[in-house]
Fold this protein.
Amino acid sequence: MNRGRRYDEPKLNLKKVFAVIILFVVIIMCIVMLKGILSNDKEQQNVVTSTDYFAAYQNNKWGVIDSSGKVVIDPGYSEMIVVPNSKEDVFLCTYDVNYDDGTYKTKALNSKNQEIFTNYEQIEAISNMDENENLSYNSKVLRVENNGKYGLIDMEGNEVLPCEYDEITGLQGVKNAILVLKDGSYGVVSDEGKLIIPTSYAEIQGLGDEAVDGFIVKNTEGKYGVVDISNGQVLEMKYDGISKIHQGDYYVVVDGGKQKVVKKDGTESLNGNYDEITAILKNPENGVIYKDGEKYGVMSLAGEKTIDANYDDLKEAKSGIFIAKTGENYGIIDLSGNTLVEFKYRGITYNEKADLYVTEDETYNNEVLDSNYEVKLTGMVTDLDDEDGYIEIRQNDEYKYYNFRFEEEKESDIFPSNTLFVSKKNGKYGFVDKDGNVVVDYIYDDATSQNSFGYAGIKKDGKWGSINKDGKVVQEPAYNLEDYLQVDFIGSWYLGKDLNMNYYRK
């Protein structure tokens, strides 16, 4: 039987197949390499663009440097240049100051030394001061003036509040809240320019250090009350005064010349047997810390003295546990007055996040106590970071690191992006890499850890200098910084003595 013709399939050409496969492999490798290059470029760009800026002081003049130590604005100004946000190249200069009549001029410069935001007569940072007198500046907005009226702009120059206010200042002690005055009455705006408390009060104070804590307000009749962040009434404006003391729904007010505790629902407690209320306890039902003369004690809301006023200072660490002082020494007691930690320290602080205590003796040495008041570490605590969860402590002239379980950690685990780590050998300091290889020989009398900009301090013959991330000397030891609270370098510039001002000098 004759079949129809069958067309045979062609045979595979193996050489061509292999060639195609190799071609695909090469293409894929090129793509991977290209991605890696682009990724590295992106990382390099991130490094380059993540520049910080700082005020700089040299030869009695002020300028600006960046985080590599490069001079951005030559030191030539008599007044300190304010850098309100270290991540933004916005620098505020004051010049032509007349100290007799208090007049002056201001301008804003960028990192190219170009004047910016020129459509305003004056431009200034909004300063603030916390209860410990630490100075800071609002990092989001600037105060501007035109025709005698004030407004706000952001760091890009965008108007967030029009120039229609008679006065704009930081609401002292409160983060991210700004006090405004209009037509003789005060209000509060956020640093996004949103009016959160209308301009209808004779006086406004922060109740706590955050806007969400609420505000103490005063009316034109001289009476005080409390409003929340949405201007909702918390306490009626009928009191002679309100203290910045509150806990939950409990507040301390002044009525008829005497302090008392008022609950949000109007319930009143403690109208009498003490000189002053200094704190409401973390569990308000346990009462308050009170003061008789110069001594402190604890009293219940019913007026019962649960701890007699026998202490020279008394602060609640956590609920029912107190750091107390007698004479020059501090200890720890409970709500029944029992001594939990002997009165032998010159200072004790409590870290709530870490749930531990740090004591200090007369030689500034520290002991770290756990929540059971057991001594876990001794030395000099140089940092306690409750965000990243570590303790840096100097022990036997070496810096060591521990987590909050008091387990020792490698410095390279705490700071994985660092390139150098302080090491000590035969009484001298040097630096090693993350694998322990010596990068800087052991020739220095002291050294600091590498900072976030890649620089570390080195000390020799009583003088300080600096090295960069590669271990190369940037500044030969030449500066006497013995009375400085913190030794830190950016290039050849060292951190100024007044940490509040956050500037570098040389």
